[in-house]
Structures are given as C-alpha cells and as structure tokens.
C-alpha cells in the first residue's frame, strides 16, 4: 500500500508541474501575441503596403554590389554582437530556470 501511495503522490506532483509549465507557456504566448498586435504584425493593410519594399530590396540584392563593402563592417559587427548577446541571455535564462526548478 505504501508503494501505491508513493506512485499516486509522484503522479500528482508531476501533474502539478505540467500544469504550472502549461500556464507559463500560455502566459508567454499571450504576451507574444499582444506584442504582435501592438506592432501591427497582423494588420493586413500595413503588410500589403510593405510588399513593394520587398521587391525593391530583392532588386537591390541582385546582382550584388560590393562597392560599399566598407560601409557594411559596422552593421555586420553590430548584428553579430546582438546575436551573441541574445544567445547568451537565452542560455542564462534557461540555465537559471533549470537550476531554480531543482532547488
């Protein structure tokens, strides 16, 4: 009978953890959706106005023009720095949440 109680307690604890995780994911998704609406990501009119800009961008990309390669260095370094910083923050956040869950 003691083993059955332990399994029941273990399953209950696992279900609570799963429910907590599901709530956290739902809250994060709600925040992301709110941000999408705030910046107008779902605004069809605004999105349709950007389509000509995409064609212009593709037109500037082909054929590539390497005459301004010196002007690309700083933006390229900024982009790499932002991606490294973002990855480091994600790793730190993930590690902290993993260690907090074990405490």
List the helices and strands and how they pair.
Elements: H1 2-39, H2 44-61, H3 73-102
Describe this entry's structure for a reader.
The chain is mainly alpha-helical and 103 residues long. The chain folds into two domains: 64 residues; 36 residues. Helix content is 83%, strand content 0%. It contains three helices and no strands. It starts with a helix and ends with a helix. The mean pLDDT is 86.
Query: What general form does the structure show?
Result: elongated
Work out the helicity level.
Answer: over 70%
Number of domains: 2
Helix/strand/pairing class, anyone? Answer: mainly alpha
For this structure, the quaternary state is single chain
Contiguous uncertain segments of 5+ residues: none
| Average pLDDT reading | 86
Count, helices: 3
Write a brief structural summary:
By secondary structure, the chain is mostly helical. The chain has helices at residues 2-39, 44-61, 73-102.
What keyword list fits this structure?
single chain; mainly alpha; 2 domains; 103 residues
